[in-house]
């Protein structure tokens, strides 16, 4: 999907190319190895979903006089990808992930030393971009707050490792931090800088939030439905006590086998993890998670329908359906 | 020195207490273990030098009408310590430091996971503080740039690990990143928000920079003069190829023994490191470093003398002499 997603959106694809070039320019750093690592990460496999949603939302109001100039829009779109990349790099340190976007991750290539500073460096690039482009708007504080919320989401996820009592509400807090806040920011910021009304900006905020949640739930489901995903990260998520949604939704089921296995915590073997995955499917966790994803997708689609009519609105609805695997 | 430094400055000591309270308030986070770690780190042993220099510089212009209100000054002073703490936490990950300010470091207490996020979290606290307090002044960009320069200094230090050809100019780049930029920011920002003239702000910038360089050189010298400092961090600096100034100043000396030892890089044993330290002293590295520190201290003192006359100016001269171990 990653490489074909934008084929049907040639105008958007062109703008995403601009974001990619701008990104390469902004992340340049006088440290050859790090430069190589960041450039590779920026050019390999990333779907640029956050910039894409941002760009689509800027086009909601056709020929708006309030739209800021294109260079600014490309810079803001870039800032979203930079923030995303910086959190990915730091997440990889924590997960000890060997791979990122199909390539060797920054931390496994250069060690955690460089990875810590690489993520920090991207935070400063992010702040430069928002300082230069959104400083005199309400979105400066919203950006800064988003970064904080992403971190609090990560910390909350850590706090609830191995917690077999955690609730869906708590999961939502984590998902907000991991994914939804950034989709929400991208959408709201797109509407705002595209010159949309404050009512449309509010709608965009909610749309981005719900798309983000559904997107993360579907990502969680992949761990249980695609054998090729049964790889180190999945294994590590379970072994490090990060429970994804399908598992979380069957924690209350009366299965001694499941709870005995989970009690092993970090000592789970690969066959045991595979058994947990089979149990989660058997107990209906995947189906329940799919239902929840559909609920959030529907919420987003209902709100998209309320947007002012435009080509961008139709593209947005279509992209949301494709991305969130709606068949109708 | 840490605990007695402010005894002779009762007014300053009172303001530093305010900064400490404010710091505890700002770093509060809904994650009990992390909260404990950050609180401990904020209350233990830190000299609060950067806030102290900032506060002294705010008082240069007695009863200036341009001085911003006290709450803002305490917030800005706090932001300097928060930025300092965040870089310390990430540095400890890279150095695998077991101790920080005499206490167990965040990373060795909670693992690198929490330490990565703890540092990131403090970055967001820093940005909140500068957003709330200096957004509409030139110091917003200067703060943001300082954070970037600190990181580039760290990256430059890594780039030159085990580099026996590195120059004093390169060392200065590292020192700027490690220490001097933040002292410079503290001093310049203090003068500016204290309502001083732009000429005085320029002087303050230079004073802070030179104090920072001298301070770091003296810290480097301590590794060679105080047996109690011959501990894990010193050992690690050498073993990880980070050459402090006294060593760097004798790299050109004609000593086969020194170069044979250095060629062992990360395989140096403790006795070998002790031998390197003895050689550095023998070859005059410590003396040369002391001369350089004195040069930068003198530059700072000459500039302090040019400041408008005030009680704060006298205190500043005295503190600089005490801190930088000037005997006259």
Automatic annotation (TrEMBL), chains A, B:
Q: Which UniProt keywords apply?
A: Magnesium, Metal-binding, Transferase
Q: Which GO terms describe its biological process?
A: isoprenoid biosynthetic process
Q: Per the record, a Pfam family?
A: polyprenyl_synt
Task: Give the similarity note.
Answer: Belongs to the FPP/GGPP synthase family.
Which GO terms fall under molecular function for this chain's record? (2E,6E)-farnesyl diphosphate synthase activity; dimethylallyltranstransferase activity; geranylgeranyl diphosphate synthase activity; heptaprenyl diphosphate synthase activity; metal ion binding
Protein's UniProt keywords contain Magnesium: yes
From the broadest rank down, the organism's phylogenetic lineage runs: Bacteria, Bacillati, Bacillota, Bacilli, Lactobacillales
Q: Does the keyword Iron-sulfur apply?
A: no
Q: Which cofactor does it need?
A: Mg(2+)
Q: What is this protein called?
A: Farnesyl pyrophosphate synthetase / Geranyltranstransferase / Farnesyltransferase / Heptaprenyl diphosphate synthase component II
Q: Which domain of life is it from?
A: Bacteria
Organism encoding this protein: Ligilactobacillus salivarius (strain UCC118)
Q: What is its EC number?
A: 2.5.1.1, 2.5.1.10, 2.5.1.29, 2.5.1.30
């Amino acid at each position: 999907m990653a490489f074909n997603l934008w084929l049907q959106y040639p105008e958007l694809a062109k703008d995403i190319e601009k974001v990619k070039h701008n990104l390469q320019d902004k992340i340049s750093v006088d440290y050859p190895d790090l430069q190589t690592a960041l450039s590779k990460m920026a050019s390999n496999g990333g779907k640029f979903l956050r910039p894409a949603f941002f760009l689509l939302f800027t086009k909601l109001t056709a020929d708006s006089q309030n739209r800021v100039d294109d260079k600014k829009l490309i810079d803001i779109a870039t800032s979203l990808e930079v923030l995303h990349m910086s959190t990915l790099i730091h997440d990889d340190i924590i997960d000890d992930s060997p791979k990122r976007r199909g390539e060797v991750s920054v931390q496994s290539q250069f060690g955690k030393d460089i990875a810590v500073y690489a993520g920090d460096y991207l935070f400063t690039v992010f702040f430069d971009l928002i300082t230069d482009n959104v400083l005199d708007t309400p979105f400066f504080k919203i950006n800064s707050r988003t970064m904080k919320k992403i971190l609090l989401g990560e910390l909350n996820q850590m706090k609830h490792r191995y917690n077999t009592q955690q609730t869906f509400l708590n999961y939502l807090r984590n998902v907000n931090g991991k994914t939804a806040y950034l989709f929400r920011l991208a959408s709201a910021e797109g509407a705002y800088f595209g010159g949309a009304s404050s009512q449309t900006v509010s709608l965009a905020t909610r749309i981005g939030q719900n798309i983000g949640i559904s997107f993360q739930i579907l990502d969680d489901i992949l761990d249980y439905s695609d054998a090729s995903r049964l790889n180190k990260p999945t294994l590590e998520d379970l072994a490090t006590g990060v429970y994804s949604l399908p598992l979380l939704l069957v924690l209350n089921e009366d299965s001694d086998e499941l709870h005995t296995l989970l009690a092993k915590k970090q000592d789970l073997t690969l066959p045991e993890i595979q058994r947990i995955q089979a149990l989660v499917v058997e107990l209906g966790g995947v189906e329940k998670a799919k239902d929840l994803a559909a609920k959030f997708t529907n919420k987003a689609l209902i709100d998209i329908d309320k947007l002012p009519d435009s080509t961008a609105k139709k593209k947005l609805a279509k992209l949301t359906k494709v991305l969130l695997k709606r068949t109708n």
